[in-house]
What we know:
This protein is an alpha/beta fold. Helix content is about 40%, strand content about 15%. The chain has 16 helices and twelve strands. It has helices at about 45-55, 60-65, 95-100, 120-135, 145-160, 175-180, 195-205, 220-235, 250-265, 285-295, 320-330, 335-350, 355-370, 390-400, 415-420, 430-440; strands spanning about 5, 30, 90-95, 105-110, 140-145, 160-170, 185-190, 210, 240-245, 275-280, 330-335, 380-385. Strands 3-4-12-9-10-11 form a six-stranded mixed beta sheet, sandwiched between helices. A four-stranded parallel beta sheet has the order 7-6-5-8, with helices on both faces. A two-stranded antiparallel ribbon has the order 1-2. It is globular and about 70 Å long. The chain starts with a strand and ends with a helix. The mean pLDDT is about 95. The site of ligand F0G has 23 residues, from α5, α9 and α13.
Amino acid sequence: MARLRCIACGATPDSAAADFRCTSCADLLEFIFPGWAPGAGAFEPAVLKALWLARRTSREALDQSGVWRFRELLPHIPAEHAITLREGNTPLYEMPRCARVAGVQNLRAKHQGMNPTASFKDTGMTFAASSAHQKKFKWVACASTGNTSASMAAYAARGGMHSLVLIPDGKISWGKLSQSLDYGALTCQLRSDFDGCVRILNELVRQKPVYLLNSVNPYRIEGQKTAAIELMEQLGWEPPDHIIVPGGNLGNSSAIGKALLEMHELRLISRLPKLSIIQAQGANPFYRSVKEFGGKKIEPMTADTLATAIRIGNPASWKKALRVLQATGGEVGEVSEIEIAVAKAEIGADGIGCEPASAVTLAGLKKLRQRGFVKAGEAVVLILTGHLLKDPDFTIKFHRGDLLGGAPGETENAQTKYLQRAPLVLDANLGAVIAVLDAAERS
Ligand code: F0G
């Protein structure tokens, strides 16, 4: 049986308040599983692994979901409430070109952008939206930089619920906004940033019977844990040395870290990978918390980065993320706008592609490798959180050389130039096409 527990004061309420904050100390809640205590013999690792593998051939919707397939490690939600789009089941790719630029021999990427709404949010949303359905809510809501809202809108629609989206006006990509509209959400663009949207939403859920689907909702974290379980299964339960994730509101890193610790406790894996978290330099409150304040406090900031998914100045789950960072021995990193843009094009050049926020992982890996935290022979997995087509505007601007308004390194840097592929406008003339083909072959 799963129980809720406050991460700060340890209170174990029977149910959560509307804002998912502890009613004693206002900190975050998490699910714990008292039956998994060492020696309790909760699960036989080999039996669980065989069960999960067998479900891959099942015709049942829940077994086909890469989240619900691992339901033994999640709180119980009855099957009749499960809303699934067969999320999860995302590929783990080898990244040979990126491995060379990063200076490591064994680099893979788990592409969470290959989920039904094209971001990692679906793994948490299937579970949390199902809990809303179980609790008979008519309305669900979230504040978002775009991906959460797209995902929530889809799952609410599938579950016959209404959804309310609060997103910053401007500074979110059209790809994501258009998803929310098509999935039928009531979409409000607030004249504020993500952190402002969160503030309004927290007040709203205290007044209206609306179910909060941001990652402070611990059901979201439970669903997102399955990305790490699926990753270990794909690696034959042989953990890599490093896992690298982008950090925004810090729910995803908290979830992946929680899964690693739980799998270790249950002896599904024999050692812990180091989980490192990378932020954009312009949205780096967690990086500064660790580097400047030893993780003792966080100073909210006004965030700014073209990686709009992680344009977050006051991350809700920073204490959870800190705990898994410390427990796994991971590092924090920060990367510049040009480093993000270059890394994104490099991931694209491996035939994979991702959205800007996901590319901080490769940019961060290069720095962790240079500092010697990651060794050349160590196995590394990057978590790519969103699909390339989420933000085509960023991609086109980068290739045209006008992403950063001529900032240093944007066009004159040889490496950047080598990656840029601006479209060529030509006369409809065979000779013109052959001329550019010949020129490309020579270069
Ligand atoms: N990558 C992408 C593509 C994201 O959309 C987000 C967060 C993150 C990384 C960071 O994950 O917040 O769990 O640390 N997007 C949120 C949203 C906040 O509203 O879609 P995190």
